[in-house]
Amino acid sequence: MFDSILHKAPAAPIRLNPDLPAELERIINKALEKDRNLRYQSASDLRADLRRLKRDTDSGRSAAIATAAEPARQPITAARLKKRRLPALITAAAALLLVSVLLWKWPPGFLSKAPVPGARRVLAVVEIENMTQDSSLDWLGSAVAELLTTNLAQAEGLDVISSQRVRGLIRRRVKEGERLPPGQTHDVAREAGTDLFLSGALLKLGSRLRLDLQVQETATGKVLFPDKVEGDNIQSVFTMVDQVTGRILGRLLPGEAPRPRRMWSRHGG
Known about the structure:
alpha/beta; 2 domains; elongated
């Protein structure tokens, strides 16, 4: 379904319903446009076009009734019955189209334009990629993601998706041992139903390690907080994660003191 939405051209509405007005077909095609810049930018724009179509349809029908004086009552034929049903069909199609466009363009929770004061936000640590060119450190990216998940989950006012849930969503997209393709961290966050997601990379600068992270809004992809931290070696990862946890919580939940709880498993020393 996702592949069809993103890559395949939809069937022409006129083929599904030959009686569909040309303007309604144009509205549907604009709502299903692959290029996000050419699609409707807001639900209000879509509603305005649908209201304009309904107005023009109603006025056209009224003009036809006023100018076409019928000499006698005509029997209700299948064609006339179909015309009478057209406004109802337009209304039903418009409602369905509106819901479909909103569900496609926005993830769960799109009806709230801003977080409700006091509401808990939902975050997932999706992936920390090993960019050190040292395959023996592949485990370290997963360990850092686990540490971040555990630390952030201690915060009041923030719900964090479990590492098991995130790994399950990733396994749907890649085979065991493979990396998540670029750009799909956003898709994983959407499927997890989060407000925010955290991703990043682990790099090696000589003998030092560097952790680059960014917190993004799931709905828009907007980067809310980029950060980076360096350490002398693998043993410094504890301190690196604690430092960045405090800064992330300071940005997302101002005034809340971080309460990191370390969980660590050494792999290969």
